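Re: beginner question about structure tokens

> Can someone show what the tokenized structure looks like for a real chain? I only ever see the sequence side.

Sure, here's an example I had lying around. Input first:
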Amino acid sequence: MKFTTKLLATGAMALGAMTAAAPAAAQVEGRVATADISRAIIGSTALQTAYNQIGTTYSAQIEQRTTKQQQLTALLQPFDTNGNGQLDEAELPAVQSASNFPQIQTLEQEVAALTSQVNSARIFAVEQILGQYPAALTDVTTQQQIVLVMQPETLQFAAEGADITQLITTALNTRIPSVQIVPPAEYRPSRQAANVFKDIQQTLLTAQILQQQQQQQQAQPTQAPAGR
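And the corresponding structure tokens:
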């Protein structure tokens, strides 16, 4: 039971159907390239605009979630005896037997419901763009005469210019310049879209952490060399 505030989701992408594989003994005749699906979608104008619009349209839910998460964190803090920012199995019994456990449960449910509303809108946006990814990939591979496209992490080496992610982003911008952000009633995202969304959130979280680290390093005063 974690109670630290983070981006809404983490995880790894599973979209093997979009990656072609050649037989081990076959010789590939043509250009080979790499492409990262999540980065291609993150860079698209449609997703960036959608995320900004969701931040405005769902601002009440986001604000309520932040407030309730802070309240939940405050209630759970006394039970975090080892101070690691989460509740371990050894600490859970004390929470479950606490007099305010019903209040903790209610807050957890409310936070989860608010998070689900925002995430549903984001996944809905991702799913619409993902639907155009195969066509965008075909556009680029046809124009660039590419016969094989793989995920970057599957290769041990790739020459400069092998990554066509940005080209796919450009093709996505042409094919789907904008998306809807309010899911229809009873919307249920596909497993594929949910997995890509998790990978997108993890990528954004990693970028945010790196940016914060860089800002902290820049804010640290430079130590002057000791004089002789």
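Each token stands for a local structural state, so reading them left to right follows the chain. Helices lie at 37-42, 45-57, 59-76, 92-96, 101-130, 133-144, 165-175, 191-219.
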